[in-house]
Amino acid sequence: MKIKKKKKPTKKRTIPLAYIITCFLLGIIFIRAEIKGSQHQEMLQEILKDPVKTHAVVYDKVNKRRKRAHRKYCYKFSVDGVIYKGKATEFHSTKNLHKTKIGDKIEVLYLRSDPSKHAYIEEF
User: Fold this and answer.
1) CB of 93 within 8 A of CB of 81?
2) Which of 35, 41, 116, 121 is deepest in the core (most CB within 10 A)?
């Protein structure tokens, strides 16, 4: 007498919902970073069409992470009595921005027709 082996029902492999959600969120984060980066590059190109160089005063340091490469320096400058604020990231800098102290002056370029479009000069 032959014994027949019972076939075990095969389980369909499914992707856990947690993996799908994680991949979806990482995709959104990546897309947002790319969009923000391309908008920043467009703004830099626009500034270069009619730039004005000025000095801005560093008023704060923000440590995004413990690594030195993620330190941001908050600066402000004035055009026609209006104060504009921005951030310079040490990561983009080719100079030793990490030696900059609060109260030091750094060079900033802004668009003559719209000073709200500005950037630390080392980003160019």
Assistant:
1) no
2) 121
| Cβ neighbours for 62, distance < 8 A, ≥ 6 positions apart | 71, 72, 73, 74, 87
Q: Which two tokens stand for residue 117?
A: 């479009």
Q: What type of residue is 3? A: I
Separation of alpha carbons 76 and 84, rounded Å = 5
pTM over 0.85: no
Tokens encoding 104: 């030091």
61 and 72 in contact (C-beta within 8 Å)?
yes
120 burial level (CB within 10 Å; 0-12, 13-18, 19+):
buried
CA torsion sign, 13 to 17 to 18 to 24? positive
| Whole-number pLDDT of residue 114 | 93
For 80, what's the count of Cα atoms within 13 Å in the CB-facing half-sphere?
5
